[in-house]
Amino acid sequence: MIQVTDLRKSYGETEAVRGISFDVRPGEVLGLVGPNGAGKTTTLRCLAGILPPTSGSVAIAGRDLRLDPVGAKARLAWIPDDPRLFENLTVEEHLRFIGRLYRVEDAEERIPALLEEFEIAGKAGELPGALSRGMKQKLSIACAFLHRPKAILFDEPLTGLDPIAIRKAKDSIVRQAEEGAAIIVSSHLLALVEEIAHRVLVILDGAKAAHGTLEELKAAHPDLAAGARLEEIFMRMALGPAAGAAGAPPAADPPPPPGPLPPAP
Question: For strand 55-60 and strand 2-11, is the pairing parallel, antiparallel, or unpaired?
């Protein structure tokens, strides 16, 4: 559903993304992790069509983003870490506008359900200036889900949410995957990635450092203690062997693994 081939993005002499290739299948959640400045957000913005790649290709649901930008963008949704809303549109008007923009035929039926799902029905008539940071994030996600995108890109999706909203947002992400969407979640919250992602892509200094299931990443570092968590694996890759947790006891109550990886089409 998402195909990225030799993606490169340069800013002058600086190559921010260096030849990254990967794919995301329908029904799969890919966790995108890396330190600040590694190239995660630049990668996502290239996938969303916000930034033009210097070279390489991106395809969404079989639509080449360079050759058919409208067709590709019509099939994806992008949720940035900082919600960008229209100051003069109410919460409900945002959803109605998105419904018209994407020609969602059943928007009138879907909007009330999304308002309830994200607990913003009581704010339907409010302007963004009256919303909390968390409410704005909920509205951004609701707008993204309205047109049933086949590919969804999240950049720090839980920013500003309270614990109850975090739990519901995670459930919504998993449910979108179960309904067939291909999802990329970029987050510094490694416990979140470990809980919901089928595979993990680690980016260091603009390049792909590791890509695979959590078990495959663990197998690449057999010296780590049994039961090592994603945090320990990431620290080993980012900081070297001295940062590893070899010999440390496994963390208590690890999150359950996500469902089985969807079969390749």
Answer: antiparallel
